[in-house]
Write a structure and sequence with these properties.
The chain is α/β, with parallel strands linked by helices and 249 residues long. Helix content is 29%, strand content 22%. It has an eight-stranded mixed sheet with strand order 1-2-4-3-5-6-7-8, sandwiched between helices. Helix 4 packs across helix 5.
Length: 249
């Protein structure tokens, strides 16, 4: 496939109101009259924070995997990639990640919900096929966004993240796929294991891929980088795009 400059195909925008300013990039599919399209929301990790409105696109494949030509030919969709400002977090601070019951959504993650609503009102987006995924800090943000807007999403993919166990009852109707490396040295694998266990107890539809100790190094990556194989997992992508929104239980 020819080289694609994704900074050219993801349009830069800024959401701004009297309280907050949020840069984001938006990829639009080839739109056909009378058709509606899924929307994938991607929440990046801590290292991509800033205000350049670029790093969330260029630093990894979390956003671009859904916008590449091969995938768009099979599943044309919109892709939203907001950028978290420096010294801010999707959902809550890393300082309280060890106590997952204390995690809760903040005004920044709520703003992502407002951007989604704005896009739905502006473009032919299928309201029943809005998906959210995130890695590391963005994985925590994915859980926070889902618990904040449990009636908005069709499915979620959480990569090396975590979340508030006390709020999972609100999202037990949403299908999930979790990814984590057993020897992740940044976000403990127990965070995903605990979420998966709790969601299973609640009767949720949950898939879980745990990469065994040493696997990430064997493919030339550091242990935390489970988003690389996760976002190249074709089975996961097909699974995600088969899901449609369900009413909360």
């Amino acid at each position: 496939m020819d080289f694609v400059n994704y900074l050219e195909v993801f349009e830069p925008h800024i959401y701004e109101d009297e309280f907050i300013k949020l840069p984001y990039r938006l990829f639009k599919p080839k739109i056909k009259e009378g058709e509606v399209y899924p929307l994938v929301v991607f929440l990046h990790g801590a290292r991509e924070r800033g205000n350049d409105n670029e790093k969330q696109i260029t630093a990894n494949e979390g956003a671009t995997t859904w916008a590449n030509e091969e995938f768009q030919n099979k599943h044309p969709c919109f892709v939203l990639a907001p950028q978290c400002p420096e010294n801010s977090y999707w959902g809550s601070s890393f300082r309280v990640y060890h106590d997952m019951n204390q995690l809760g959504p903040n005004s920044l993650i709520a703003t992502v919900g407002l951007v989604i609503d704005e896009l739905v009102g502006k473009f032919p987006i299928d309201k029943d096929r809005i998906y959210v995924t995130g890695l590391s800090m963005g994985g925590f943000g994915t859980i926070a966004l889902l618990t904040l807007c449990p009636d908005k999403f069709a499915a979620g993919v959480v990569v090396c993240g975590g979340g508030n166990l006390k709020k999972l009852d609100k999202i037990k109707h949403i299908p999930f796929w979790f990814f984590h490396a057993e020897d992740d040295d940044v976000v403990p694998v127990e965070y995903s294991r605990t979420l998966v266990k709790k969601l299973n107890e609640l009767g949720a539809e949950v898939n879980y891929t745990e990469y065994p100790k040493g696997y990430m190094q064997s493919i030339g990556l550091f242990p935390h980088a489970s988003w690389v194989p996760a976002y190249r997992d074709e089975e996961m992508k097909e699974w995600l795009f088969s899901k449609k929104r369900k009413a909360p239980c």
